[in-house]
């Protein structure tokens, strides 16, 4: 994976590099917008980490320009704590995620992993997570290429979870996906989740419940 | 935003002009009327004189009136203006004893003239004439029938006189108006002097000069000057508070940083990697705490010194809560806790608030909950509609206003160790950490939340849970349903 | 040269010819102007000539009539006359008061002395003294009268010699005569003694100054009273047997009055005439070539008011040109005056 880091603080830049390189990624660091723009013009990257507080220009402008060009490279923006508006505008302009400074390395790694996974999915239109793979076109779910025979609702559930792989799938979204606009009891979704959970037991994958919020597909490992 | 709408000078000028013109018009009308009346009187007196002269020349012969028209009377009638003249001496039947022009004297006129001398204006022979008639009293040896003397002349002279009088008044008036205008312009300048003075005083101040205002102002501007003074005073206070806060914050930051410095210094002296490991752990935690503290200080400062709440608008608290919580729950920091949302009330919950403030507030509450509870703790956030609560608006003495306000309570509850009662009161003060020094919280979180609560017109409460835990409630007034979009 | 170009000068010539032909008839017919005047044509002839010369575009018709005729024409003529001139001041004033006159607004009119005009409608444009006249050979028999008192004395002391040989205006037949007597009567009640005196000598009452002058020249009359000085002076120049005497105690002055008729058919021409009358040019002719005497102070000539004053002194009393004249045409007053006249004339005491 080729990662582009746009960060002017030497200390942070070094830590980013050190943190992300071991994951099997090539990391390029630039400390000015100008250099970054030049790099973006020539190369393609799998993920961009963009610090909004760079002195020589507006990070959001770079992001907007990127998206205007039709470049869909995932972008993770780094903001100072009080730049809440920055964050919101950043996400509006097309950043995929944000991280507030100061951040823990663990958080950073988790976010980067999630983003990379998502972009991987998008590239071949199949939803993947660990050993699971789902082809939205055919509606076939496979575990290690072995077809999983799932009833319709569980399939829909799986698809929903996979779409949000790495982050929490909101319960309303899942309910709408499974039941349409019918009124259902609050337990209805839970039923299907436990069924799917049972199917996935022992596969190293689990579905974590977030009370009142939704569900997330996770690796057992972490 | 300062909008310049009109000008005082222009306003005054316009109003003065309007008044003067209005009054002037009335004055002119009056002048015209009185000029005309004066001219009429002046010329009518000539008619009177001529009539009298002619009347005196009426003589009686055998009961019949005889008149030898005095030439002088006719010249009186003609006046300086050389009017066309008319005279007629009428007998009792209205027949002319002698007349120079064949004008018909109406019977109604003769009747009125019989009672008392009559002056009237009539249109005769295509022109306007002023006629005057009187009955002649005379004595004689034989009783006489009444005789009327009628005289008249054209009106050119009196109209000219009226015009002349009016013109004179008009010129005088115009001159006066011009003079008054000049004087008024001067007066305006003088009257607006205090404003110019004040402006100069203000201009001479430095941009950051917060001292009380030193100026002499007239009564009308007292309020303005006082308001300015209050403004300066508030700014002074504000700046002092900011300076105090900055001093406080700086002190607060220096302490942990000093700690970090000593830890790392000691570790550098050691050769033992275990020591280094321990020291690095401490430094890591300390760094995290310090940077959080710095962030929170900034939030607090912002909240304390923000200006108008200009972005307060109705927003759906339920949706915002869910959104914020979704974000937090997915984070690494929340991995080891069970962070969830309680079943929300049906439908949107509208409050008047700023989005960023609520997010900040939630962030602080959740952060606190995560920090001060052991892994595996259950942290639940939710909303409770509280309707029909009487909220006392306390007024000193007398009946306090009672107002029924619907509220919503945003709560964050955990089953952690909780906070002892005595510490709870102090928790809302900055840098209070409820007696806990073992976590890397900064102690500012609740202070920030409290500030936000106040800003939005709500209040914060802390309570213990059974068997252990803490519930923090933020009460906010619900939006008026009419205002909800 | 193309035929087109050759035509041009030809066309031009034709056009010019047409213009010249048309030009003569284009010099339009002169405007007629009718002036009805109680004013001797011979006396005013130089003025009329001068006017005609100055205004060739106006064809002037001047009609010389009696005062009563002129007054009647003002109201009855159809079409109305353009300009009306008369020596009968009260009658002119009455017509103006009745509204028959039309205002003249011109620089000459504005500059005209205020005491010699009324309403800017009627203008007194002459200044004719009223005189006594006698035959030269009267002086052989008696001292010629120089004042009204002298006259009265002569009528009393030389009653026999002057029997039937005195002439004066008939107040009935002559408007100007009546006016002069009214004015005389205003100044002194002794006027009536004069009337009685004239009655005693059986004075012959004529209707015009000309008739009186003719009589004096023919010898029928030896003495005339209240003649128009203008006519008398001209006559005396040609008839040396007639002597003109401006009375030394007081001499009336008559101003002939002219106005533009309100219904004048040719108002512009009428205005031109009256304007000429009042202007420098007209007044200069008046002062130089007629015995009508100019009123304008800025005119120099033998017949100016100023010169007259120089010659006869300050006791000139112009008949006032104002509304008081109207009293004289009041029928009752006129009747009363004439009645008194008759009474006095026939007085035998």
Per-chain topology:
The complex is a heterotrimer of chains A (222), B (485) and C (349).
Chain A: E1 2-6, H1 10-20, E2 26-30, H2 33-42, E3 47-51, H3 59-68, E4 75-80, H4 84-93, E5 97-101, H5 105-124, E6 127-129, E7 132-135, E8 140-143, E9 146-148, H6 152-163, E10 169-170, H7 171-179, H8 187-200, E11 205-210, E12 214-219
Parallel strand pairs in A: 1-2, 1-3, 3-4, 4-5
Antiparallel strand pairs in A: 6-7, 7-8, 8-9, 10-12, 11-12
Chain B: H1 8-56, E1 58-61, E2 64-67, H2 71-78, E3 85-90, E4 96-99, H3 107-115, E5 118-124, E6 127-136, E7 147-154, H4 156-191, H5 193-204, H6 222-269, H7 273-305, E8 313-316, H8 317-329, E9 338-341, E10 350-353, H9 355-372, E11 378-393, E12 401-414, H10 421-427, H11 445-455, E13 459-464, E14 470-477
Parallel strand pairs in B: 9-11
Antiparallel strand pairs in B: 1-2, 3-4, 3-7, 5-6, 6-7, 8-10, 11-12, 12-14, 13-14
Helix pairs in contact in B: 1-2, 1-4, 6-7, 7-11, 8-9, 9-11
Chain C: H1 3-26, E1 31-37, H2 41-54, E2 58-64, H3 67-76, E3 83-86, H4 89-97, E4 101-102, H5 107-111, E5 117-118, E6 122-124, E7 128-135, H6 148-157, H7 159-162, E8 166-169, H8 175-187, H9 191-200, E9 204-206, H10 209-218, E10 223-228, H11 229-238, E11 242-245, E12 251-254, E13 257-261, H12 267-278, H13 280-289, H14 305-312, E14 316-318, H15 326-329, H16 331-345
Parallel strand pairs in C: 1-2, 1-3, 8-9, 8-10, 12-14
Antiparallel strand pairs in C: 3-13, 4-13, 5-6, 6-13, 7-10, 7-11, 7-12
């Amino acid at each position: 994976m080729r990662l582009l880091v746009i960060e002017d603080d030497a200390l942070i830049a070094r830590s980013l590099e050190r943190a992300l390189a071991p994951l099997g990624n090539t990391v390029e660091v630039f400390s000015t917008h100008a250099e970054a723009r030049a790099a973006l013009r020539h190369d393609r990257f799998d993920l961009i980490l963009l610090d909004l507080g760079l002195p020589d220009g507006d990070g959001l402008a770079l992001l907007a320009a990127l998206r205007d060009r039709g470049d869909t490279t995932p972008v993770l923006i780094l903001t100072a704590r009080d730049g809440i508006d920055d964050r919101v505008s950043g996400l509006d302009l097309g950043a995929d995620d944000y991280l507030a400074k100061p951040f823990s390395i663990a958080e950073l790694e988790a976010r980067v992993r999630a983003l990379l996974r998502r972009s991987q999915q998008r590239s071949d239109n199949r939803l993947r997570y660990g050993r699971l793979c789902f082809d939205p076109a055919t509606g076939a779910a496979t575990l290690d290429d072995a077809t999983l025979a799932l009833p319709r609702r569980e399939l829909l559930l799986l698809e929903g979870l996979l779409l949000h792989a790495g982050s929490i799938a909101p319960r309303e979204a899942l309910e709408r996906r499974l039941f349409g606009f019918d009124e259902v009891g609050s337990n209805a979704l839970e039923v299907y989740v436990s069924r799917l959970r049972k199917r996935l037991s022992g596969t190293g994958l689990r579905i974590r419940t977030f009370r009142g919020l939704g569900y997330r597909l996770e690796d057992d490992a972490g | 935003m300062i909008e310049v709408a009109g000008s005082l000078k222009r306003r005054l000028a316009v109003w003065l002009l309007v008044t003067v013109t209005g009054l002037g018009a009335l004055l002119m009308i009056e002048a015209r009327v009185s000029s005309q009346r004066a001219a009429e009187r002046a010329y009518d007196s000539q008619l009177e004189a001529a009539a009298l002269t002619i009347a005196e020349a009426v003589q009686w012969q055998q009961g019949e009136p005889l008149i030898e028209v005095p030439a002088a009377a006719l010249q009186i009638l003609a006046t300086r203006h050389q009017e066309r003249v008319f005279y007629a001496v009428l007998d009792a039947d209205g027949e002319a004893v002698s007349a120079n022009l064949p004008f018909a004297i109406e019977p109604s006129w003769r009747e009125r003239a019989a009672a008392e001398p009559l002056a009237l204006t009539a249109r005769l022979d295509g022109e306007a004439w002023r006629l005057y008639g009187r009955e002649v009293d005379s004595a004689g040896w034989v009783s006489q029938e009444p005789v009327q003397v009628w005289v008249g002349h054209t009106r050119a002279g009196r109209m000219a006189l009226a015009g002349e009088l009016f013109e004179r008044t008009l010129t005088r008036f115009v001159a006066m108006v011009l003079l008054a205008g000049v004087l008024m312009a001067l007066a305006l300048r003088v009257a607006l002097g205090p404003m110019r003075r004040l402006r100069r005083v203000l201009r001479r101040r430095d941009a950051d000069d917060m001292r009380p205002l030193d100026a002499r102002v007239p009564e009308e501007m007292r309020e303005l000057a006082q308001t300015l003074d209050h403004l300066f005073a508030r700014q002074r206070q504000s700046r002092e508070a900011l300076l105090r806060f900055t001093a406080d914050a700086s002190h607060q930051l220096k302490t942990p940083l000093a700690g970090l410095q000593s830890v790392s210094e000691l570790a550098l002296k050691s050769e033992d990697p275990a020591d280094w490991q321990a020291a690095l752990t401490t430094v890591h935690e300390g760094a995290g705490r310090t940077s959080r503290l710095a962030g929170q200080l900034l939030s607090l400062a912002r909240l304390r010194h923000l200006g108008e709440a200009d972005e307060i608008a109705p927003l759906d608290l339920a949706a915002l809560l869910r959104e914020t919580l979704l974000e937090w729950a997915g984070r690494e920091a929340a991995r080891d806790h069970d962070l969830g949302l309680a079943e929300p009330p049906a439908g949107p919950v509208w409050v008047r608030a700023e989005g960023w403030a609520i997010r900040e507030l939630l962030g602080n509450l959740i952060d606190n909950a995560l920090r001060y509870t052991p892994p595996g703790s259950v942290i639940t956030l939710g909303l409770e509609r509280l309707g029909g609560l009487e909220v006392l608006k306390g007024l000193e003495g007398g009946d306090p206003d009672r107002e029924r306000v619907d509220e919503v309570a945003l709560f964050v509850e955990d089953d952690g160790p909780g906070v002892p009662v005595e510490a709870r009161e102090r928790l809302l003060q900055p840098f209070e950490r409820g007696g806990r020094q073992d976590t890397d919280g900064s102690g500012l979180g609740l202070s920030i939340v409290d500030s936000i609560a106040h800003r939005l017109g709500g209040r914060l409460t802390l309570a213990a849970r059974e068997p252990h835990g803490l519930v923090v409630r933020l009460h906010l007034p619900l939006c008026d349903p009419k205002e909800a979009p | 040269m193309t035929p087109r170009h050759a035509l041009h000068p030809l066309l031009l010539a034709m056009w010019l010819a047409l213009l010249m032909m048309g030009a003569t008839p284009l010099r339009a017919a002169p405007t007629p102007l009718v002036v009805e005047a109680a004013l001797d044509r011979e006396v005013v002839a130089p003025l009329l000539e001068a006017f005609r010369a100055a205004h060739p575009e106006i064809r002037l018709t001047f009609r010389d009539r009696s005062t009563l005729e002129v007054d009647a024409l003002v109201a009855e003529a159809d079409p109305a006359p353009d300009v009306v001139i008369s020596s009968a001041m009260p009658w002119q004033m009455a017509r103006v008061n009745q509204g028959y006159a039309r205002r003249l607004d011109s620089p000459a009119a504005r500059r005209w002395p205020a005491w010699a005009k009324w309403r800017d409608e009627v203008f007194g444009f002459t200044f004719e003294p009223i005189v006594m006249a006698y035959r030269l050979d009267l002086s052989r028999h008696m001292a010629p009268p120089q004042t009204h008192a002298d006259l009265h004395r002569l009528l009393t002391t030389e009653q026999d010699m002057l029997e039937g040989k005195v002439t004066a205006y008939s107040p009935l037949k002559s408007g100007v005569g009546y006016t002069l007597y009214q004015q005389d009567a205003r100044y002194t009640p002794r006027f009536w003694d004069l009337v009685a005196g004239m009655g005693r000598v059986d004075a012959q009452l004529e209707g015009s100054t000309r008739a009186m002058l003719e009589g004096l020249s023919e010898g029928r009359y030896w003495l005339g009273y209240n003649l128009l000085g203008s006519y008398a002076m001209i006559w005396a120049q040609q008839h040396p047997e007639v002597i003109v005497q401006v009375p030394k105690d007081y001499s009336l002055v008559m101003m002939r009055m002219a106005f533009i008729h309100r219904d004048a058919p040719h108002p512009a021409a009428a205005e031109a005439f009256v304007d000429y009358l009042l202007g420098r040019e007209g007044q200069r002719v008046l002062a130089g070539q007629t015995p009508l005497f100019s009123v304008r102070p800025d005119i120099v000539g033998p017949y100016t008011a100023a010169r007259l004053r120089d010659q006869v002194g300050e006791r000139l009393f112009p008949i006032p040109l104002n509304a008081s004249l109207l009293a004289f045409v009041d029928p009752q007053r006129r009747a009363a005056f004439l009645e008194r006249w008759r009474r006095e004339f026939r007085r035998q005491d």
